[in-house]
Structures are given as C-alpha cells and as structure tokens.
C-alpha cells in the first residue's frame, strides 16, 4: 500500500517535471522566433527616410546633430558563408532586394550613409503627397561642401554655425581616396557622403553635385540647398543668410547667354533637338536651389545624358548643365544670379585667390556692398552671401575681422 502511494507520487512528480521541461522549451523557442522577426516595420522605414541613419554600433554619441538616431542592427550585412552551389543561389539573388528595402547603415561613422548612387537617387526622388508633416518641421538650409579633402576654413564656418543647431544640415563630398578628418569641429562629424573621383571640368563634377543634392533631399526639413567649396566663406552671420534664403521667392543659379568661344562656342550640335543653341546657357557652378529644383535636377533623365555624352572639355558641364536645364524648364523660378562672389578681373581659367595680406575690411565690405541687384522684387545691395576663393593662410585674418564686418 505504502509502496503504491510512493510510486504514484513518483509518477506525478515526473509528470510535473516533464511539463516543466516542455514549458521551458516552448519559452526558449518563442524567444528565438521573436528575435528572428526582421525589424523593419513601416514606421522604421519612414524614419530611415527622414534621417538617414549612421552606424553607431561602435561609436554612439559621436554625432550630436542627429541625437534621435539610435543603435541599429546591421541586419543587411550579407551572410558571410554563401557557398557557390545551386542550393544557396536563391539567397544570393534575394540579397539585392533586401538591400533596396532598407538603406544600409554607413560603413564608418564618418559617413552619413552607404547607399549606391542608384539606391540614393531612387530614395531621394520620393515626394510626400500629404503636406502636413507628422513632426514639427523647422525649415533647414543644406550646406553642401564639394571639396577635395580637408576643409581648411572650418574654424570660420564652425563659428558661423554655432548656436543654430536644427536650422542647417551639412553634407561633404570629398575625393573618395581622402582619408582623415574633413574638419575637427563637431558639426562636421559624420557628414561625408559616399563619393566618386571628381575631375575638374568633367561630368564627374556634376555627378558629385547631384549626389550632394540627393543626399540632402533625404532630409525632408531641408528647403534650400547651397553648393560651396573649401575656398568659400560666408559674408554675413547665420541669421542673415538663413532668412535671406528661406524667404526668397526665387532660386539663385547664374544663367546667361554669352557669345564667343567660352559661351555659345561650347555648344555641340549633337545636342539637338533636346537642347538647341538658343536654349544654351552659362553660369557659375556655385548654385543655390530650392527643394523643387533640387528634385528636378536629380530626377532629370532627359538633359543629363545629353550633357554627359556631348559636353566634354572644353565644354564644362558644371557651368552649363543646371543653367540650361532651368532656362528650358523653369525660367520663372530662378533669379539668374549667383550668391557667391568671385573675382575674375585678373583673367585666366581660374578666379583670383585671396591670401592673408589681401583680406581687409575694405575687401569684405566691397564683396558685401559693391553691387546692386533685385531680391523679391525690390532692389538691394545684399547680392552676395558667400565669397571665394580664399586660401588657407587667410583664415586668421578672417577670424579676426568676422565680428566687425560679418557680425559673427
Ligand atoms: C545551377 O542553376 C542554374 C540556373 O539556376 C542552371 O543553369 C545550372 O545548370 C545549375 N547548375 C548545376 C550544377 O546544377
Ligand atoms: C547678424 O548680422 C546682422 C547684420 O547683417 C545684425 O543686424 C544682426 O544683429 C546679427 N545677428 C546676430 C545674432 O548677431
Ligand atoms: C553700401 O554702398 C552704398 C553705395 O555705395 C552706400 O551708400 C552705403 O552706405 C553702403 N552700406 C554699407 C553698410 O556699407
């Protein structure tokens, strides 16, 4: 009798134990299942469009400009052990599709993203049809630096930007082989975009400009887009430049018709009928456009191939492509003038370079106030917001004179 009861107890006990083991097993299985569900819900995709995220896996908190960006799982890293057999061929062919659904995080924290041009332009071409944003939108100005490598005047720019976080975004396109830091100041960290080799006067220059525009378009808060070089300086403080750009009813792309070898002489008759000689225009490379024109430039499949195929040195696409495109398609949206002062008075293919001894109060005042132009239908003497070319040795004079002449 006692033995029977003991055996029954033993049986019940082992049953409980079995249930316990099953329960634990089920729990573990469930946890693994939940982990393997991909993390790309609709909302995540939306945010990754608004702010292209960096890879902060190793150096979180390096970028103070996008504090809302959190650690991301590098979910799109290709599997390391793809065997070259037919059993795994399905996985290999599926791989590019996965990449195009979620942008890849940047390979290094110096870069803003790691998209290919094809992915980048496709993403940037999207336009929201609902005007009201689900976030509080403060219009921003995108400062796009097209440089070779380092930005020697960055201390001046850093002083210019300081205190205006949230009103600007910075993008930097360097030569791809440049290693090192573009600038040490915090606002320049993590702002490089993937780049290709740029050759002076060739179509690769326009390609780099389009790459900068596309990267800046990914941030829906950017409303105005300025192209700058490492030799450019701001001529006014941030608040003056910001309100000038944000409140302007027109864009600032220099655009004129010029006779002679350096104007109409660069036109190539093979461009007909897409571009005729009468539509051909010239203008400074250093442009300022709004969101609408930026989109038109990066989505253009009509004029760009013509320039790529027929405008080769001594035809310089960077001086003709955007001015001609705007002249044909959107002449009423543009003011036909540039915001970037440059001195061509000494002649030659390159403008004058200002060094340490030439930077004076008189020079800067002349750049600020030397000409007259129209702004929103009114005459003004504030025609240039930026100036070039300043060589690195001019930095200390500029820093010295900035408070007095440029109010920053
Ligand atoms: C592997 O698959 C491809 C097409 O998917 C086929 O053409 C080829 O013959 C296959 N190779 C082998 C060894 O089965
Ligand atoms: C910016 O410069 C303008 C003159 O261009 C000046 O009136 C204004 O006070 C300056 N703003 C700041 C914040 O220093
Ligand atoms: C700008 O130039 C005009 C005409 O030369 C002059 O009357 C005006 O005082 C100048 N303004 C400044 C701020 O220097």
TrEMBL record:
Lineage: superkingdom: Eukaryota
Protein's recorded name: Uncharacterized protein
Organism (species): Smallanthus sonchifolius
